[in-house]
Design brief:
Elements: H1 2-32, H2 39-65, H3 81-109, H4 114-135
């Protein structure tokens, strides 16, 4: 189960990033180009938030079954920065990012004009993307790092 969750969470990262980038591009293009907020824009807004929530649930499931954190204690993390990152920082920042994304999606849905919908979506989704970029364990990260894909075999 652990390796399957790890694989799905690794793949989900790219779905969230791709969806967010696509949503941000549509939002800025609509906002700066004074375009109408179409049903496709609404679908993108909703789909990005949904994929992010699924990814967060996969992450929580992984968090509770990972062997790395079976003996996690915050007081012991000074000896292992990787445990601190995955035991605390990663999960907290990603949760905050999904909350920011959800608030932005909900607020964009309720705006009275297309320009306001696009602006709200663009700003909140950009903030969520920046938080996600900070908390992903990239292969080049000075923090604990992981490969771009984790395979179950």
């Amino acid at each position: 189960m652990y390796s399957t969750l790890l694989f799905l969470h690794s793949l989900g990262r790219w779905a969230v990033l791709g969806g967010l980038v696509y949503g941000i591009i549509r939002a800025y293009r609509g906002w700066l180009g004074n375009q109408p907020f179409t049903s496709l824009d609404n679908t993108v807004r909703h789909s990005v938030a949904t994929v992010a929530h699924v990814q967060l649930m996969l992450g929580y499931a992984l968090y509770f079954v990972t062997p790395l954190l079976q003996t996690f204690h915050l007081r012991d993390t000074e000896h292992d920065p990787g445990t601190l990152f995955f035991g605390f920082q990663h999960v907290v920042v990603m949760t905050v990012a999904v909350v920011v994304l959800t608030i932005g999606s909900a607020r964009a849905k309720r705006q009275p004009s297309s320009a306001a919908q696009f602006r709200t979506m663009a700003l909140w989704f950009t903030a969520a993307l920046l938080l996600i970029f900070l908390a992903i364990p990239w292969p080049f990260s000075p923090l604990p790092n992981r490969p771009y894909f984790r395979f179950p075999f």
